[in-house]
Amino acid sequence: MLEVREISKAFGGLKAVDRASLDVRQGEIVGLIGPNGAGKTTLFATIAGFHRPDGGSVIFEGKPITGMQPHRLSAAGLVRTFQITQPFAGINVRENIMVGAYLHTADRRAAARQAEAVAAMVGMADQLDRRGSDLTVAGRKRLELARALATGPRLLLLDEVMAGLNPTEIVEIVEVIKAIRSSGVTILLIEHVMQAVTSLAERVYVLNQGRMIAEGSPAAIAENPQVVEAYLGHGAARVLRA
Questions:
Q1: What mean pLDDT do residues 55-72 have?
Q2: What's the angle, vertex CA 124, arms to CA 196 and CA 169, rounded to 5?
Q3: 3-state SS class at 189
Q4: Mean pLDDT across the chain, nearest whole number?
């Protein structure tokens, strides 16, 4: 479904991503992990059209999309979320989600129905009339997911959707992501919560200093000495092996 080949991206003298490649097959949940500053979000932004790569290519569903603008990629079915959530503070949850739905319809009633269905999927059915500014961190994370889902994605790129959540909230979001996959959406996610990676991902890629250093199942990644040294440490490695 997604083929990323030898992507490179530099900012001035800093090479944020250095010939990174990955694949995501339809129906999978694939994890992308690595230390802070490894280039994960830059790689996401480049795949999703927010940065133009200095080299390499991106293919989505058999078609080249390298450097395509984000709104065109969203219309094609590839959508990303953002680590720092920014809901429209002055409107309610329903209207926030409708913004995503308007990508495919100009009908307000149809957009509202889509927003309500998506809100139910992410556990926000009882918060539809709540203002964006009044949401908790967990609520904002769910809203970020909902706005992306309202666009009708086939591939969803999730950037640290569990950052800042407590253990109970993490367990709840893991179940939401499983439900999203069950609905037919393929997922590539950046995540630091190793328990969530183990619960969700069939395969994991590891990025360090802009380069892919490993790929495999969570258990295989946990046994990789280079990954343990560069990122996991022995405690997180035990979690992945569990």
A1: 96
A2: 30
A3: strand
A4: 92
Confidence band (pLDDT; 50, 70, 90) for 85? Answer: confident
- All domains of the chain, ordered by start, with CATH? 2-88+151-241 (3.40.50.300)
DSSP state of 14: E
Q: Exposure string (b/e) for 178-214, b if CB count within 10 Å is 16 or more?
A: eebbeeebbbbbbbbbbbbbbbbbebbbbbbebbbbb
- Report the chain's C-alpha Rg in angstroms: 18
Return d(Cα 196, Cα 85) in angstroms, integer: 20
3-state secondary structure of 216: strand
pLDDT score of 233: 62
- Is the Cβ–Cβ distance between 17 and 46 less than 8 Å? yes
* pLDDT the model gives residue 192: 86
Distances from the Cα of 210 to the Cα of 20, 54, 121, 200, 230, angstroms: 7, 13, 35, 24, 12
Beta strands in 53-194 (DSSP E): 55-60, 63-64, 78-80, 155-159, 186-190
